[in-house]
Amino acid sequence: MLFGSVNLFWNGRQKRPIHPMGMLDACQWLDVPLLFPDAILMEMRYLEFKRHLDKPDAVYLCELFARGDDYVLLRYVSEREEQVGDVEIMEGAVTYALYREGKGYVAWRMVESDGRLIGHLFHICKGMQIGESQVEYKDLMLDLWFSPAGVKIVLDREELDEFAATGAVSQEDLAWIASQEREINCRYRSIISELEGLVATVA
Predict the structure, then answer these.
(1) What is the pLDDT at residue 49?
(2) Distances (CA, A) of 16 to 2, 81, 86, 99
(3) Is residue 16 domain-resident?
(4) Do the beta carbons of residue 191 and residue 107 sit within 8 Å?
(5) Distance CA 66, CA 96 (A)
(6) 169 with 163: CB under 8 angstroms?
(7) Does residue 38 fall inside a structural domain?
(8) Is the confidence at residue 5, as pLDDT, over 50?
(9) Helix (H, G, I), strand (E, B) or coil at 69
(10) Tens digits of per-residue pLDDT, 58-115?
(11) Residue 91 belongs to what domain range?
């Protein structure tokens, strides 16, 4: 369960701050139109609760693209230009995000609006919990980017090290981050292949 204020986003664009439990209560009581206009209601499928170590928690409204016994596959469309490391992500780019119960990472497949591959991004995380209408996890700052050619770039290592130096990251979390980085390095090809297969099956 999440506490405190979070940022509410739609397709990566901030809408308003709101307490997550208050939002869920509103949904439960069918007061959603008070929170979201009809255009957003038509697209809303799933909630992502992302708890951060170094900044306020965030809630995202996502499109539920596919689901299985232990996973969900969500879809995002970028409404503005963004950047991952040195890679520019243009408006209209599509992200397919795979969340699997118990795993220590979220795997993203990012493509241009015309379907051309931009790359794959792995967010290391902990405590992945998948529900009927939401997924929740703790983001652990470190990300791994793989280009279409398979070139790896580690993102936010310095930020994590600086934050850990303050004592704000537990030794348990640091050990978990290291173990998940090793797993991704060993298995990224098979994870990417699985993600590609899921996207192709639904599309």
Answers:
(1) 95
(2) 17, 20, 28, 25
(3) yes
(4) yes
(5) 10
(6) yes
(7) yes
(8) no
(9) coil
(10) 998 899 999 999 999 999 999 888 888 888 899 999 999 999 999 999 999 999 999 9
(11) 6-202
Tell which residue, 82, 35, 83, 90, has the closest CA to residue 61: 35
Token output for 197: 């297969």
Distance CA 87, CA 176 (A): 27
Query: Do the domain assignments include residue 1?
Result: no
129-141 per-residue burial string, b: 16 or more CB within 10 A, e: under 16: ebeeebbbbbbbb
- pTM above 0.85? no
- The full 3-state SS of 29-81, as one line of letters, equals CCCHHHHCCHHHHHHCCEEEEEECCCCCEEEEEEEEEEECCCEEEEEEECCCC
Q: Please count the other Cβ atoms lying within 10 Å of the Cβ belonging to residue 89.
A: 19
Q: Alpha-carbon dihedral of residues 168, 169, 171, 177, nearest 10 degrees?
A: -170
SS3 of residue 160 by DSSP: helix
Q: Residue 119 phi/psi, 5° resolution?
A: 160, -175
Domain count, the chain: 1
Phi, psi angles (nearest 5°) of residue 85? 60, -125
Q: Residue 111 sits in a domain of what CATH number?
A: 2.40.380.10
Length of the chain as a residue count: 203
User: How far, in Å, CA of 147 to CA of 159, rounded?
Assistant: 22
Regarding predicted confidence, which is higher, 119 or 11? 119
Of 105, 135, 137, 134, nearest in space to 121 by CA: 105
